[in-house]
Amino acid sequence: MKKIYNILLLFASVFSFAQVNLLVETERNQRDYKENDEVVVNILLEISGRDMNQQTPLRMFDTSKFDVVASGSDQNTFVDSKTGFRVNRTHYQYVLRPKKPGKLKIGSASVIINEKLYYTEPFDIYVTESESRPVGAKDLHDVFLNVEIEEREVYINQPTVAVLRAYSKNFDNFRKVRNIQLPQQELVSIEQISSKKSEIEPAGNTASQILGVFLVYPEESGRLELAPAYAGLSGSKKKIHSNKVKLKVNSLPANAPAEYKNAVGVFDVSMDVEKEKAEVQKPLNVTLKVSGTGNFNNLTLPEILPSDDFKVFAPKISRNLKATAEGITGEVAIKYILIPNKSGNLEISTSLFSYFNPAENHYVELGSKSHLLEIATHEEILASKTTLERVNDYTNTVLERVDSPVLKTTTLKVENSGLNWKTIWMNVGIIVLGLAGVLLFRRIKRNRTASGKPEHKTGSLGSVQETENELRAAHQVEIQDHIAYLKTMKNTPESELIFSSVAELDAEVQKQHGVSSSEELRAVIQQKYGDQLAEDYRLLQQKIQMERYVPVHTGESLQDLVETAVNFYSQINK
Fold this sequence. Notes:
The structure is a single chain. By secondary structure, the protein is an alpha+beta fold. It has four domains: 1-131, Immunoglobulin-like (Sandwich); 138-251, Immunoglobulin-like, CATH 2.60.40; 265-377, Immunoglobulin-like; 385-418 and 467-574, no CATH class. 27% of the residues lie in helices and 35% in strands. Strands 10, 12, 14, 15 and 16 form a five-stranded antiparallel sheet that branches. Strands 21, 23, 24, 25 and 26 form a five-stranded antiparallel sheet that branches. Strands 1-3-5-4 form a four-stranded antiparallel sheet, with helices on one face. Strand 7 (110-113) and strand 8 form a beta hairpin. Helix 5 (464-487) packs antiparallel against helix 9 (555-572), helix 6 runs parallel beside helix 9 (555-572) and helix 7 (518-529) runs antiparallel to helix 8 (531-549). The longest helix has 30 residues, at 421-450. The N and C termini lie far apart (85 Å).
């Protein structure tokens, strides 16, 4: 292509004095060909001046004595901003193959501009017979690739649709094309829309087939020459390649907003907060969503602005995108975890976001998204709940946490959906049966005593303190079992099993101390063991919550969590 453009520039310099230049020439002015050679013909139309009006399209020469293997065009317009002088240059190229040897004519091309006919002089080429080849020999040039660009002038990060076609006069050749490789080069992103081959389209003696459709995203302004696409042919180690395509990439307008980054297309930004009321030092999920159509492949995403009122962790980004003829379309979700530091009203805000709309040729400012929510302490949240809600919360917490250390039981939640009279009457029946059994046992015991039958001696029931010590010792044994089981999980990658085991251990410790929440257990630890262990317990609970909601778990962090839990619960169980 460089040689072709050198020739065209030479032609343009020779005829620069005229207002209309029309040239038809073969590549390197070649006139002699062999029967199976390609004949590359270049047609240049240059129109210079302000008031030049092209009244008819360019009429090409007769190609009936040739097979048209491929064709393409390129157009450039140059305007002098001071004088308004315009130069419009159009370049056409045909790749022809002679149908038979002999003297063949390349005819005239013509166009009417400002009521005047411009045309080229015809000339002859000479085609000789090729040397005979063995039957079954294959010519790689029986198949040609061509890239056709829909829009040759775009902005930075604005896509243009490219179509890769194969041309051949033999239908069997289309089945041989394989291992198609799209163009690859720096500062250009390629996104494939479709890799499905189309139906073969006959056109005279030559047929074509679409091999793929893709998007081209230029990332730098200026003149861009798109690298060729490649494909292999079955039964051959050689590759065939397409033409190189030139694009003009314009810089974006200079009146961009101060916060503009690189978004080109049409976008929308939204914020989704997990709940309207949150608790101090408890994780909170916040999701930003960027949806629309544009350069998602290199888009600078908005982010949550940092604040002293909360801690924010690195987000987890998920994409749901697809390439279409309009561009890359879909949604990007940016999932954050926040931990409020204090109670009161908390405002979460995002960075400013704007984009350039190439269809309307202007910038759009979406500004910042914000959300106001209420943060309360654990005591304030408990005080705001009714008695029934607190009972249900406690029941749900116990049922979620108290599982067998080895065998996972089915999690059951008590929903706050009113009184279940059937369940109540069943429980009353069980209590009545239990009381009847106790009375029956006592009557049998009295009868045996009255009849003088020997009775098995039982130990004294003892005092309340002795009974409590026995129960506490039993609980300590269970806690030791939980701790021993937890120690075996230091190297396990199953995070959910670790979290459930720690929850079971914590629930058993709460049960031992006669409390029903971590806040109450912390108060008991502070009273019995001191401020340091109470603070260690608070940090452990915070660490568990942070690790549970972190997007990606690592082996080191899970192992550290297990060691911290084992060390703490071992201390308070001594």
